Amino acid sequence: MKIYTCFGDKGKTKLISGEIVDKNDKLVIAYGSIDKLISFLAFIISFYKEFYSFSIKNESKLRKIDIIIDLLSDIQLLLFDLATDLASTNLNQALSDKFKIKRITKENIKDLEKIIDKILKKVPELNSFIIPANNVLASMIHYLRTLVRESESKIIDCLPYYKINENILPFINRLSDLFFTIALYLEVTINNDIKLLNKFKEKEKQIGKELFETTLKEDEERMKRNIIGKCKCGGDLIIIQTKKSRFVGCTNYPKCKEIYPLPKKGVIVATGKTCKECGAPIIKVFLGKGKVYEKCINPKCESNINWKERKTNKYGKKSK
Questions:
Q1: CA-to-CA distance for 166 and 106, rounded, in angstroms?
Q2: Tens of pLDDT along 36-65?
Q3: Contact 319/291 with Cβ under 8 angstroms?
Q4: Which of 46, 99, 162, 195 is deepest in the core (most CB within 10 A)?
């Protein structure tokens, strides 16, 4: 059996759908990062079974950690499903059924939440930051958690270009929370303690001030990125995101109550252009799979009449 095909020697690879893409395509990078999680989980499990377990003499502790290791093995299998889900993003339903593609579901997310809640009952309540340095096994899980966050950002990078399963991002977010919870549990189980940042309380005011100033700077930067144009009152029109909706509002609120609705789907970016009909800003909306269109944000503008007919993909062709 050959493991090399030479197909990728020129920097190309084939998705499950049969589509040929560059090996640095955002989707390939995203599911490659899941492969990294699977491999690092394998390292943690092997390290524990072959080395670290022999350093723990307490049988009760060993049984508790063995349960966690079994859980990590189950998560490994789920991550295989996640990687396949990402790699088969462009696959139609008929082929998905034919290849028996397993998708990440809402049930998978709920299962992670139940496990998190169950483990948290065995961990003392935190009132400070923690230092992930109590034992090597917990530290490995903390590092794994940061790898999950990297994967999350790589998946987000795919959103303007691919229609990703909507359950994947919530799942990966809960997975990071689960690994954090497992790391805390291992610290309590192995060391009977969680190493807190003791000096935090002593420097709480100074740290609080610095965190507040940093947050203000981050908010300013975020606001700059969300500006899509100028309001009639002279303020900036910005994209505002809430849990249930998103819309365009003015920075001079409440003096100026100018507000515009935004499309519910797609990634929105500013174009720097204004509408010739009404003067309102024009936005660009990425729907994934190469589909993108431009639109005036003013719903009452004449340019928005039958705007769907002018929706185009990245090749300039009218979408069906």
A1: 9
A2: 999 999 999 999 999 888 888 888 889 999
A3: yes
A4: 162
Lowest model confidence (mean pLDDT) among 38-52, 85-99, 122-136, 231-245: 122-136
Q: Any idea which residue has 């079994």 for tokens? A: 70
Q: What is the b/e burial string over 21-52, where b = at least 16 CB atoms within 10 angstroms of the residue's CB?
A: beeebbbbbbbbbbebbbebbeebeeebeeeb
Higher pLDDT among residues 199 and 22, named by residue: 22
Distance of alpha carbon 233 from its chain centroid, rounded?
Answer: 37
What φ, ψ does residue 241 adopt, rounded to 5°? -115, 125
Structure confidence by residue, pLDDT tens digits, 233-285: 888 888 887 777 888 889 888 888 888 888 888 888 888 888 888 888 988 88
Per the structure block, which two tokens stand in for 149? 């966050």
Those residues whose C-beta lies under 8 Å from the C-beta of residue 260, and which sit 6 or more positions away, are: 237, 247, 248, 280, 297, 298, 299
List the domains of the chain with CATH numbers: 7-201 (1.20.1200.10), 218-310 (no CATH)
pLDDT beyond 50 at 315: no
**Separation between Cα atoms, residue 140 and residue 67, nearest integer Å:** 17
